[in-house]
Amino acid sequence: MAKLFFRYSTMNAGKSIDLLRCNHNYLENNKKTLCFTSAKDNRYGEGKITSRIGISIDAILIHDNTNIYSIVKKESDISCVFIDEVQFLNKEQIFQLSDIVDELDIPVICYGLRSDYMLNAFESSKYLMAIADNLEEIKTICFECKSKKAIINSKILNGKILTEGEQVQIGGNETYKPLCRKCYKKLLNEN
């Protein structure tokens, strides 16, 4: 029985490398997969899922109007669908993913962020938290104290934590730091 998975974490926790590893396991066992990524994240080129350690694969781009269900339905013998940067999808696309699971009986494994740097849930992450069959946290440690689990994506500019602005700004280690709640509060109070 197929399931909808949401594997979430903060920035820099290894979501993309986990996706690449899982996809590779399917391919090594002669299973066909489809990999998708948001068109909004083009840090490593369009239509690429790339880990920070340099491994990448080609992926189908998801735009705001992309019907993921229709794309998957046209294919045959798909064993699993992988979604990278799922936080950039919209509500309708999240329900398309659930239809892939429920109607086509194909597992869907989504990777993304639970919340933004302002501590607001991304729309798609909110719906995935509500309807996914399995929620799995990919853990990383706090950039500041190096001992606690990071749960907050902090956006830092000139040493100060930002708490307002555009929800989506594509960036990596130069912009975002994973922090535990205690370090986040401490740094926020220092602002």
Structure description:
28% of the residues lie in helices and 27% in strands. The chain has 191 residues and is an alpha/beta fold. The strands form three sheets. Strands 5-2-6-7-1-8 form a six-stranded parallel β-sheet, sandwiched between helices. Strand 3 (48-50) and strand 4 (56-58) form a beta hairpin. The N and C termini lie far apart (50 Å). The mean pLDDT is 90.
What is shown here, in short?
The protein is of the alpha/beta class and about 190 residues long. It is built from five helices and eleven strands, in the order βαββββαβαβαββββα. It has helices at about 15-30, 70-75, 90-105, 125-130, 180-190; strands at about 5-10, 30-40, 50, 55-60, 60, 80-85, 110-115, 135, 150-155, 160, 175-180.
Strand residue content? 25-35%
Give the name of the CATH superfamily of the largest domain.
P-loop containing nucleotide triphosphate hydrolases
Give the fraction of residues assigned to helices: 25-40%
- Can you count the beta strands? 11
Q: Per CATH, what is the topology of the largest domain?
A: Rossmann fold
Q: Going across the major beta sheet, what is the strand order?
A: 5-2-6-7-1-8
Helix-strand sequence:
EHEEEEHEHEHEEEEH
Low-confidence spans: none
What's the level 1 CATH class of the largest domain?
Answer: Alpha Beta
Distance between the termini: 50 Å
SS content category: alpha/beta
Instruction: Note the total helix count.
Output: 5
Largest sheet: number of strands, sense, barrel closure: 6 strands, parallel
Shape: elongated
Radius of gyration: 17 Å
The CATH architecture term of the largest domain is 3-Layer(aba) Sandwich
- How many distinct domains? 2
Residue-averaged pLDDT? 90
